[in-house]
Amino acid sequence: MKLPRPKKKGTISLEETLDRRRSKRQFLTKRLSQEQISQLLWAAQGTIQKGYRTAPSAGGLYPLEIYLVEREGVQHYVPQSHELERTVDGDVRPQLARAALDQGCILEAPVCIVIATEYQRVERRYDERAARYVCIEVGHVAQNIHLQAVAMGLGSVPIGAFDDDQVHKVLFLPEDQKPLYIIPVGYSVA
């Protein structure tokens, strides 16, 4: 599914966005628009000039893969064409919440963005430093998502506490990918 073109100009400054960023764990059931989803995914890993992406990557290897989890199922984000590819049909949020130690915000949020990695892309070039570079990159990407959410008047919360193997199973991730981060996003209650 082709996503709407992202906006390159926001309504609040970076400084205001940083000042307003807070973890939000309670969400309204209101759905996000395709434009909002497009903007969040572009902020995460969207392409910018000369094939670069919105977050830096060691050696330009881009080992991270972004998945959108919502009521209808799971979709994989393809940055090069700014589109989503369906990978799983049906609502897996209850299973994802269980895999994340029963964190209710995963069930409440209209979408969760899951960041996974394919370590081998970085290991081939950087060997033992690969894990470090992936950790740095996932931090860049997650912060972009959180700040973009704030800029659009949405709430988000970082989740790192989960059973890796269960998340892998629930999302039917490719064998060579490992989940790193779950970010529920939506309209926050307060």
Number of domains: 1
Task: Indicate the proportion of strand residues.
Answer: 15-25%
Compute the number of strand runs. Answer: 6
Report the span from N to C terminus. 32 Å
Strand order of the largest sheet: 3-2-1-4-6-5
Q: Work out the helix count.
A: 7
Q: Report on the biggest sheet.
A: 6 strands, antiparallel
Q: In the CATH scheme, what's the topology name?
A: NADH Oxidase
| The named CATH superfamily | NADH Oxidase
Mean of residue pLDDT?
A: 96
Uncertain runs with pLDDT below 50, 5 residues or more?
Answer: none
Radius of gyration, in angstroms, nearest whole number: 16 Å
Q: Tell me the CATH architecture.
A: 3-Layer(aba) Sandwich
Multimeric status of the protein: single chain
Shape: globular
The SS-based structural class is alpha+beta
Helical percentage: 25-40%
Sketch the topology as an H/E string, one letter per element.
HHEEEHHEHHEHE
Please identify the top-level CATH class: Alpha Beta
Question: Care to describe what's here?
Answer:
Helix 1 crosses helix 6, helix 2 runs antiparallel to helix 6 and helix 5 (120-126) packs across helix 6. The longest helix has 22 residues, at 130-151. The chain has helices at residues 14-20, 34-45, 93-99, 105-108, 120-126, 130-151, 164-171; strands at 64-70, 73-78, 83-89, 111-117, 155-156, 178-186. It has 190 residues and is an alpha+beta fold. The protein is globular. 35% of the residues lie in helices and 20% in strands. The protein contains 7 helices and 6 strands. It has one domain: NADH Oxidase. A 6-stranded antiparallel beta sheet has the order 3-2-1-4-6-5, with helices on both faces.
